[in-house]
Amino acid sequence: MTLVYFFGAGQADGNAKMKAELGGKGANLAEMTALGLPVPAGFTISTRVCMDFLEKEEVYPPTLSDDVAKALKRVEAAMGARFADKQNPLLVSVRSGARVSMPGMMDTILNLGLNDETVEALAKKTDNPRFAYDSYRRFVQMFAGVVKDLDSHLMDDALENLKKERGVEEDTGLTADDLKGLVKQFKGIYERELGEVFPQDPYFQLWAAIGAVFKSWNCARAKKYREIHSIPEDWGTAVNVCSMVYGNMSETSGTGVCFTRDPSTGENVFYGEFLLNAQGEDVVAGIRTPRPLLLLKDEMPRVYAQLEDVRAKLEHHYRDVQDIEFTIQEGTLYLLQTRGAKRTTQAAMKIAIDLVKEGILSRPEAILRVNANDLEKLLHPTLDPRAHKQVIAKGLPASPGACSGRVVFTAVEAESWAARGEHVILVRDETSPEDIGGMHASRGFLTARGGMTSHAAVVARQMGKCCVAGCSSLHINAATKTLRVGPSEIFEGDWITLDGSTGEVMLGKVGTKDAELGEDFATFMSWASELRRLEVRANADTPKDARYARGFGAEGIGLCRTEHMFFDEHRLPVVRQMILSKNIEERRAALERLLPFQRSDFEEILEAMEGHPVTIRLLDPPLHEFLPQTEKDFLTLAGQTGLHMEEIKMRVRALHESNPMLGHRGCRLGISHPEIYEMQVKAIVQATVNRRAAGVNVRPEIMIPLVGIDHELRWLRERLEGVARETYAKESASKGGTAKVGPFDISFGTMIEIPRAALTADRIAKHADFFSFGTNDLTQTTFGFSRDDSAPFLRVYRQEGILQEDPFAVLDIAGVGALVSMATRLGRETNANLKVGICGEHGGEPRSIAFCHETGLDYVSCSPFRVPIAILGAAQAAVRGTEGNTANQAAR
Fold first, then answer.
1. Sign of the torsion angle spanned by Cα atoms 762, 764, 765, 771
2. Most buried residue among 38, 189, 216, 225 by CB atoms closer than 10 A?
3. How far from the centroid of its chain's Cα atoms is residue 292's Cα?
4. Each residue of 766-790: pLDDT tens digit?
């Protein structure tokens, strides 16, 4: 079994298709080598070793040592230097590489192989002692931090103090003797803090670094990142051991990051940043503020021309925008990594459209290039141009959008404040991978250092959050929790506003306006609509929500919750009178007062969705939810109804249920108090006739909730359809007859939301025109989890690998999905014309939508602002289904 894969000198044991085995970085290093690009020789240790190492108490496979030794010999031959040699030393970097990009989440060590002897050999070989000791001090600090988990600030402070003593701004101003002394200081800190001397054996260094990188797969920030991005725990990381090339050798050396197109806008321009006399972490970590890539054209025209050739070759080869890391060693270009570029959603959409126009992608391929969940990021607000704003600073526009929030200075504080419901902005000198939890909790980030490819910028674009980076006028004091900008002093908890599109920082809260979806969005979504099979509806309870949903492309309403209409301040007293009625006559009188309200609501919603179906769910929650809970409310209700407070309290106590979710609600309420559902059906029918008489094409559907027994649906449908037909005939006669309003065509269906309904769907389908899966409740009743109370232990379940996903966020295909599949099959066996959809929150989640497509559902329904996500998710499911069918046919 191969565990180690060599690349170098134009030869590679792996390729770009081997990401599961080699990780993204290793697979692409092999691919670039095979393409003949200038990649320093190295080798990749498989992701399988990572999981084996972590599961077997940090013991390596028995053959690994020999495999690494053989690969190292090949690297030495390719590079013309020898590892641990005292005359001609080969140095290496040791870097992580998961199969998907996890920027900054795991560890890297550069310049490995240096010790007190090899540093002198490197100085003599290059005739550059300053470079050699600069590399050594970097290695000591990285090894201490990564392998020994030593607080980096100890050595950072020593470096900063030395720069102050020497009166220099940048570390490039330090001399060889300065750096030699700094190495001695660093080793002294290492020995003092850890109780051991800095290791001098390069082979010990190598294996310690390999183990540390493997262990970093399970570090807190990596685990948090995987949790946020739903990356499986068992993938593991590869380790890439690569020959060092040096950007810190001289002013003819440098390092940089470039993108084949602008990752913020998608514009087809060569975009990036570089630093001379620096190593890669200086750019990525924001240690020095880098320069725009275009300036390299003047400083090193030959290297810039080579980079342009690389840009064209890699984008054409991968058929996607690339993020490329490079180093220049004394005028010679080397490529250290390429990967699919992280980009804003706006950029992803523009790039996909442009690649179709350029003939590189087909439309179905382009549809797969945008993460469906990321469409929600397009809907973030921007600053209202009419709003007053007090700009106090300007940095780099690292990630577009605008946000206001309270200032916090640490990731821990960000998570704590956000947990209390506060909107926060994380303010740092620069962010680091350890901040990932706080960054996830924040609305935006503001940093004093770093560029457009810094950690903060990359993570912000990936998360779809606003970011202003490299704002050098900021003076941040994390100890006193203050931020000074010119004459302004800002304290923790003060409000600021960021504009990530301009880089402006403003005092206080500034008004925003809704995002404007441009031509690219319309084009892209039209392609998605052409490719999908599933219909997409919205869950909407108000005309405003319905209009929003239709604007985003919804083709109807899959769930209109009538109970939400009852909570209006003018209606709630009437609802409460209805509930507290002493007899059916009083209840019917209260319901007659409610009917005009309901009719008006339905007319507006039906008209907002003209030409499209509107599924109206009859009253679902238990009645006690509408009753008062406080003394003040009891007193108010007593005044409204004329009842004594004690009488009201007694009625509230009588309606109390120990487990209301499984209690007197839904169809059970409709059967015990049929007059409630009858009033609602009359209101729906009257609204339908009124709108049709006005020339509006409306298509209502009536949904009966919580059915678990086929006789429940039969009993209610017979009664309610009779009321509906009678009301329709009466109302249409007063509006010119069916010749004007059309025939009665209102369908009746049910929500499948308890397991028994799914198991007996063949019986229930005899009385239904449609099924709508209420997967929120179906998940609760299938797992026996309370959606309101399960969050604490579900978090533990995910951390321990018991569940990969929160089943309330992503459909549980093995359990809940099996019930959905069974109910769909059984229902259609009985009723071939049965329409089937889903209206739980899963209707807007792409992986759940893919399951709905594969299962043969007719539609999904979700919240209005997730309609674009559902449309794209449905299109992607159709495209992947077609690809799978094509592959299966080819295999046959």
1. negative
2. 225
3. 29
4. 999 999 999 989 999 999 988 767 7
